[in-house]
């Protein structure tokens, strides 16, 4: 997802540094200090406009959440929501997902969410996919032993690639669905992203998996 430049974004970010971190390299092992209380910590890598992560935080006050985006315009939209909501269990992070191990300490995180990530379909761009082995290595480092990775996409090619990539990395799959919205076997309180709602209404199937790293 690419968003137009938001002229107001930088000023809003600078005015709300209690809600958003812009120098995460100083935060390894200290993220709980930014929340009202210490609770299990979950990250969404690539939060888009923020519907998923804000709703997740509202529904689960017993957990802490971080919305992570590399685009200033996108994270500013999430920040706009959070300025209104003031959820005590939600923080924002403007940073690149390829550097997670520089921002989070080993075993600091309980779960990672990837929702409708850019598929980067060209072979030469494989290393940019958020389920490429170098990204999986980062997730493994920051996740606790019982932590999990949850992934949703409407892109069949990316989903098939991700299954192979995770399997080759030695991950174990807890749940897999090739049609999430019509899978009654999953006991899942699915929160739709803006993108998910739009494309599922057009008939696109939503692929879903939940996986863990073998210890």
Automatic annotation (TrEMBL):
GO CC annotations on file: tRNA methyltransferase complex
Record EC number: 2.1.1.33
Pfam families with a match to the protein in the record: Methyltransf_4
Residues engaged in binding substrate: 122, 154, 193-196
Enzyme class: transferase
Binding-site residues, S-adenosyl-L-methionine: 44, 69, 96, 118
Gene3D superfamilies hit by this protein: Vaccinia Virus protein VP39
UniProt region (Interaction with RNA), positions on chain: 124-129
UniProt GO molecular function: tRNA (guanine(46)-N7)-methyltransferase activity
Classification via InterPro entries: SAM-dependent_MTases_sf (IPR029063), tRNA_(Gua-N-7)_MeTrfase_Trmb (IPR003358), tRNA_methyltr_TrmB_bact (IPR055361)
Protein task: Catalyzes the formation of N(7)-methylguanine at position 46 (m7G46) in tRNA.
Name of protein: tRNA (guanine-N(7)-)-methyltransferase
């Amino acid at each position: 997802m690419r968003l137009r430049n938001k002229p107001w974004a930088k000023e809003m970010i600078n005015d709300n540094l209690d809600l958003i971190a812009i120098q995460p390299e100083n935060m390894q092992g200290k993220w709980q200090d930014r929340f009202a209380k210490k609770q299990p910590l979950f990250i969404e890598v690539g939060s888009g406009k923020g519907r998923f992560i804000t709703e997740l935080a509202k529904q689960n006050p017993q957990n802490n959440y971080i919305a992570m985006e590399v685009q200033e315009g996108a994270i500013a939209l999430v920040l706009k929501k959070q300025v209104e909501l003031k959820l005590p269990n939600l923080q924002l992070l403007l940073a690149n997902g390829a550097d997670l191990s520089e921002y989070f300490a080993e075993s600091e995180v309980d779960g990672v969410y990837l929702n409708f990530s850019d598929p980067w379909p060209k072979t030469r761009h494989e290393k940019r996919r958020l389920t490429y082995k170098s990204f999986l290595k980062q997730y493994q480092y920051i996740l606790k032993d019982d932590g999990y990775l949850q992934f949703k996409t409407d892109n069949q090619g990316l989903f098939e690639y991700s299954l192979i990539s995770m399997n080759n990395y030695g991950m174990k799959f807890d749940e897999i669905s090739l049609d999430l919205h019509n899978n009654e076997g999953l006991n899942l309180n699915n929160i739709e992203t803006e993108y998910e709602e739009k494309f599922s209404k057009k008939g696109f199937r939503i692929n879903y998996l939940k996986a863990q790293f073998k210890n």
